[in-house]
Amino acid sequence: MNHAVLLISCADNKGINAAVTAFIFEHAGNIVHADQHIDEQSNTFFMRIEWDLQGFSLSREQIADAFQPIAEKYSMLWELCFSDINLKTAIFVSKHLHCLRDILMRHRAGQLPCDIPLIISNHPDAKSVAEDHGIAFYEFYIDSENKQEQEKKQFDVLRSHDIDLVVLARYHQILTSDFVDHYVSRIINIHHSFLPAFVGSNPYLQAHQKGVKIIGVTSHYITAQLDQGPIIEQDTVRISHRNSLGDFVRKGQDLERVVLSRAVRWHLERKILSYGNKTVIFD
Amino acid sequence: MNHAVLLISCADNKGINAAVTAFIFEHAGNIVHADQHIDEQSNTFFMRIEWDLQGFSLSREQIADAFQPIAEKYSMLWELCFSDINLKTAIFVSKHLHCLRDILMRHRAGQLPCDIPLIISNHPDAKSVAEDHGIAFYEFYIDSENKQEQEKKQFDVLRSHDIDLVVLARYHQILTSDFVDHYVSRIINIHHSFLPAFVGSNPYLQAHQKGVKIIGVTSHYITAQLDQGPIIEQDTVRISHRNSLGDFVRKGQDLERVVLSRAVRWHLERKILSYGNKTVIFD
Amino acid sequence: MNHAVLLISCADNKGINAAVTAFIFEHAGNIVHADQHIDEQSNTFFMRIEWDLQGFSLSREQIADAFQPIAEKYSMLWELCFSDINLKTAIFVSKHLHCLRDILMRHRAGQLPCDIPLIISNHPDAKSVAEDHGIAFYEFYIDSENKQEQEKKQFDVLRSHDIDLVVLARYHQILTSDFVDHYVSRIINIHHSFLPAFVGSNPYLQAHQKGVKIIGVTSHYITAQLDQGPIIEQDTVRISHRNSLGDFVRKGQDLERVVLSRAVRWHLERKILSYGNKTVIFD
Amino acid sequence: MNHAVLLISCADNKGINAAVTAFIFEHAGNIVHADQHIDEQSNTFFMRIEWDLQGFSLSREQIADAFQPIAEKYSMLWELCFSDINLKTAIFVSKHLHCLRDILMRHRAGQLPCDIPLIISNHPDAKSVAEDHGIAFYEFYIDSENKQEQEKKQFDVLRSHDIDLVVLARYHQILTSDFVDHYVSRIINIHHSFLPAFVGSNPYLQAHQKGVKIIGVTSHYITAQLDQGPIIEQDTVRISHRNSLGDFVRKGQDLERVVLSRAVRWHLERKILSYGNKTVIFD
Fold it and tell me: Is the pTM of this model over 0.90?
């Protein structure tokens, strides 16, 4: 499979769709996926278009230049990707390893098209898992004193590996906005509550004390504001008065695995466009 | 069907279950439902027990007195009800009538074992619906000036009808704590968000602006604190970036109907015990 | 709102998307929805495209002729609709009226863009509901002797009202293939099981006896084979050993209402393309 | 935690509940869970009662004898278990290892209170997983010729390990009724369809061809009839026309893991009573 994907957003206007599809047709591309969305409040046009490169009359290197005039005409924000180029993905984790294990299992099963060259943690717990999978493991112990310094080192490691995507698989440290600014729309977090309910720490305990009848989890892009970034995916599960806090955790962790993996897969398949505090998922 | 129901709560202790079931057996009752729950944090015991009165050796009038010694021994809070005595239920509504219509339809279909002698509103919109069903309709226009005075009149109407349960079927007025205090655990509200997210007004708009991927609704008992009473039932539905605010409302209203009717039915069937800000649902 | 919708299916080929969008752009139309799907097994291309007619350079009458050459080039099956032309919809019902009532309620709330000139039944039960809504009611009692004769009369009534869509809202008669052939992909049924489980009569009883932990309902187009037509929508709800057959019915009817109304709405908004025994839902 | 659990079924009668709870109270036991269910069609009474053994005046060895007269009086089928005695569990698997891995992960996380001394397969694929977890692995290649002979060997292995529970974690061989008869209500299977739909092989392919909008999975006890044993748990997930057969498999496998683990956990915690082709889940 050898596909190109264009992700486009711009002010809505007549002819955008026609211009993009004509561009692909004129160079003999066969469109395999095309979807558009218009946000009426902001009058913004979003598009995802994917086509087979077999028989396409432009080489990969030529596509961006050839598309540039169309992009300029409509003042597009756009991104061109190729389905056979895997994103380089780093996983951050603390002491709960269920999401990490799940990602690695799915990766091995071919469900997550990415390379995972490194795992970073503020604790040693994930070390043996990393080793079992032949993945480099970096431990950066973090306390109130050394946070900025350690984050700087984390950043250097990420840069040295050309990391495209950071997955926070239950990483229990708040990233500084300096760090976040380097990876806008490229850090995916799993928060173990149905946001915006139960922001912050111990959401299962908060939910248990509140007496809710359903709990949920949320995967979102990280922004400078805690637990406020654009939501990618959520899911919920029913609980009852019989369920102990331990049951909340167990049921919730089943959701965390599934929801984080969906968000990561959509990102890797370039199916997400984020704008403001929202996302469009072209699934 | 001619059943008695005991709802019990007290500090947990050995022998409670045995004492209650022995009481029923000794008077030749056949238990048709028995369920207990222990809240470990507060060490509280909850029980719902329902038995067939056919062949029971005590008359209805004698049961409470006969049970009193057991209740005292364990310092129980308890309530005795009979399945063939319908609760007198008043419905409060404003301009959105979908929940009202739904309750009346289910009532007519025999799904809600209650009497509905009156509908109260701060607007005239529901008048014809009330008339179609042969139910008395009272309109109490409310503004910032006359609120207490009008609430006083509402209360008089409720009292004159011996109302047992008040259902707020999208009633858009905040009740004063004076009013609420008269009907502790006897006012059921439907809030059109997944509480504790999106408290207050316009929750669908709040959810739309937040960019959530799932919306929910919550039915709860009213307490003096806005949208903070014990949650009885919640449900959720998936939405996507394609859904307009109108879609949120449409999908949410489908949930509102179902969730409110479940909460009301459980209350009518005496399946709810509330304690602190939580509920036990013996379903 | 004054939109045109094109529903297209044909063998997949390069340039179809470009040709269709160019056609709209060249006549100054603004696309508000465009979605495509390719069924890889049959190599079939499906498209739904909707555009604003304001400023469009062709009159409604001219559009089909102008589009014809494109349609011929790609051997398209296609349908052109206008969002402000309501489909004329007939509802068939027997003795269970919950789906009928629900459709009428949604229709009144503006959620179903159609005209409902008539209700047809093999029983008199729905008569007063029809009258309350000012809708013509036709009763055709059906037994083993008179089925074909009565169906012929039903068909005449439908034709005299130029009916576009037939909704079987729990109509408990099997239609003959003669009748069905006149309304291919234009008769929507609600079957109260999670098809293909529990085909035929009494599916709730079948489910109760089987001991399933979840029940469902299915809305589908009617074909000559009983309960085998293309599935439009399904939904499920959890049940437990505590639930009586009556609970199955109550919970299932809540699903029936929602699922049938979704299927009807999608059809009315021209969001469904059916092919073979499958459907594409452009939602 | 040191609890006793009684699972009881018998013809319904007055006084059963009282007799059982009195028995526990008279020996100074504190009931921590008590739930009953009456199947009205067969007039069968089911009960699960769990009590703390701390302070209980009977030793474990004495309980059964002391309870015997009550059991005889009501002609009970009954089972006495202790929460700190783990069931010895064997896992059967073929080539798909996701359920096996999931069970082992949950076991390691303390979510499944059992011992897993062995894994049996008709293929070598799971060998390294077994070794990683220090679990004995037995491979019994099976073809049409050697089935009975190999099953006999499997049975000997199970017996030599005193196996209490067999979990078929995607084991793609049909067990003979000889084998099944030795483990009535003690073999749990996961079938990757929403039974009774799509019995037999390749259910995801069957579902994909049928065009359903929701797929499901089913965990059930094995009986002599293929895919017909008492259902323990089911769950479903929504799919769309966009989903390929590969997506069905991926989404379905997420369900398989969760549903099988729920069924196994309930069995291990003695929360399941099966009767006829149904189960009561005391959750």
Answer: yes
